[in-house]
Amino acid sequence: MYPNWNKGVIFVRVAFFSDVHGNELALDAVLHDIREMGCDKVYMLGDICFRGYAPKACLDKVMDVADVVVRGNADEWIVRGVREGEVPPERLDVMNGERAFALHQLTTEDVRQLNDLPTTCESLDPDLDSTWLAFHATPDDTFAIVPEGVSDSVIEQSIIGSYPHKLFFYGHIHIPYVRRIGDRTIVNIGSVGMPFDGIAQASYAIVDNSRFDTQIHLRRIPYDVEAACKRYDEVGYPLATAMANVLRTARPL
């Protein structure tokens, strides 16, 4: 159904979601909402499997529904492991143990798919009001951290740069927000499977774009958090208790 035509005006409804982290129940809730909202295109901005109880199921569902999937830092960890200097030293072995849990469920082809993902996707459609660029953390680095409260100059340097796009979408920090800097708009779409803003609901974004207008909607979708917490125990996850607490509190470890 892409694009939609209404009296000669193109109208496109696009969904962006990110940071599933193997939380299948949260992913199912978001995918159901995307279908209910009638989205024309779906873009996934990375971190599909790592740190979750259902890495294989989430990867399969994401690949089935998303028009484009970009690579996140946690996808890179699945492919090549967590390296020294990327996490606190005391967490290195534990996090590589979490990687091993995911790899036990994934196939060689699954890992190849993750390795082959692009790092950005974009729309430069001249028939729509706003062009956009989407990525996991920054356009040039899947690991860089750009918090919601940094200065305009930091965002201009690390995200906007010389790109001509009007909208910029990213995930990675697990905290949704919309921020305008001049004629540019920066959107963090939050996290589907592991929000860090104290709201224990899945987060994603819908963008309605026509020739004359662009509207951004950050959506919060409830799901059965307690059932997800139990899944960690049921599958024998290495950090089951800690991860359940992350889901319940919607705060990082």
Automatic annotation (TrEMBL):
<dbReference type="GO" id="GO:0005737">
    <property type="term" value="C:cytoplasm"/>
</dbReference>
<protein>
    <submittedName>
        <fullName>Predicted phosphodiesterase</fullName>
    </submittedName>
</protein>
<dbReference type="InterPro" id="IPR050126">
    <property type="entry name" value="Ap4A_hydrolase"/>
</dbReference>
<dbReference type="InterPro" id="IPR029052">
    <property type="entry name" value="Metallo-depent_PP-like"/>
</dbReference>
<feature type="domain" description="Calcineurin-like phosphoesterase">
    <location>
        <begin position="13"/>
        <end position="208"/>
    </location>
</feature>
<dbReference type="Pfam" id="PF12850">
    <property type="entry name" value="Metallophos_2"/>
</dbReference>
<dbReference type="GO" id="GO:0016791">
    <property type="term" value="F:phosphatase activity"/>
</dbReference>
<dbReference type="InterPro" id="IPR011152">
    <property type="entry name" value="Pesterase_MJ0912"/>
</dbReference>
<comment type="similarity">
    <text>Belongs to the metallophosphoesterase superfamily. YfcE family.</text>
</comment>
<dbReference type="InterPro" id="IPR024654">
    <property type="entry name" value="Calcineurin-like_PHP_lpxH"/>
</dbReference>
